[in-house]
User: Which sequence fits this backbone?
């Protein structure tokens, strides 16, 4: 499969992934960090396609995400490594986002005023951060134990040295206040439904691992 070279969609936010991780494995910092790890790519389009195991669809425009490719590559680590299990959870969650939110709900609205609507969509993510944090009683991750909590990242070829500490710092910044504004493209109810769906989907997939 050929990885895409352009990324147009914005998938689930760090705060959404963190909220899901805290419901799935609240006692495991390594799982939470793993659930953030694929987003180390930031705005690097090529790299994001790699960290998210994405391929270009036949239409040449949209993309699909393939958690099963990651699961096949890291089959043994997925059984015991909480960081790797968190990484897998992130990919499953982003697939749910594309399948249930972006492609059926957001993409059809982008036929007109595309740039304006995309800007509002991106702004909604920032507005939602503290709303999600309050709804799920989230607190910033504690300073991780680099020997224990990051150990699982070793051997995951998509993660480079320094990547994981950066994404943890990025999450801490997501707890910073932003100017208040009305949500435009997304709603908190929609995000709560998405998070509930992801918890069930990830639980089912992790339970099925052998």
Assistant:
């Amino acid at each position: 499969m050929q990885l895409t070279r352009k990324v147009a969609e914005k998938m689930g936010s760090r705060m959404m992934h963190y909220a899901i991780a805290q419901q799935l494995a609240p006692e495991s910092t390594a799982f939470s960090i793993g659930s953030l790890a694929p987003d180390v790519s930031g705005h690097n389009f090529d790299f994001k396609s790699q960290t998210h195991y994405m391929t270009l669809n036949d239409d040449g425009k949209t993309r699909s995400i393939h958690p099963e490719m990651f699961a096949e590559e890291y089959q043994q680590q997925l059984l015991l490594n909480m960081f790797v299990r968190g990484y897998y959870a992130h990919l499953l969650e982003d697939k749910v986002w594309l399948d249930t939110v972006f492609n059926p709900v957001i993409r059809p609205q982008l036929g007109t005023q595309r740039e304006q609507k995309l800007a509002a969509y991106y702004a909604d993510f920032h507005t939602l951060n503290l709303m999600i944090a309050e709804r799920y009683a989230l607190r910033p991750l504690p300073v991780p134990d680099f020997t224990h909590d990051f150990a699982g990242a070793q051997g995951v070829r998509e993660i480079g040295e320094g990547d994981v500490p950066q994404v943890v710092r990025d999450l801490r910044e997501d707890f910073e206040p932003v100017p208040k504004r009305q949500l435009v493209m997304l709603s908190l109810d929609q995000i709560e439904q998405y998070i509930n769906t992801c918890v069930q989907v990830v639980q089912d997939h992790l339970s099925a691992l052998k």
Summary: The chain is about 55% helix and 5% strand. The chain has a mean pLDDT of 88. The first strand starts at residue 54 and ends at 56.
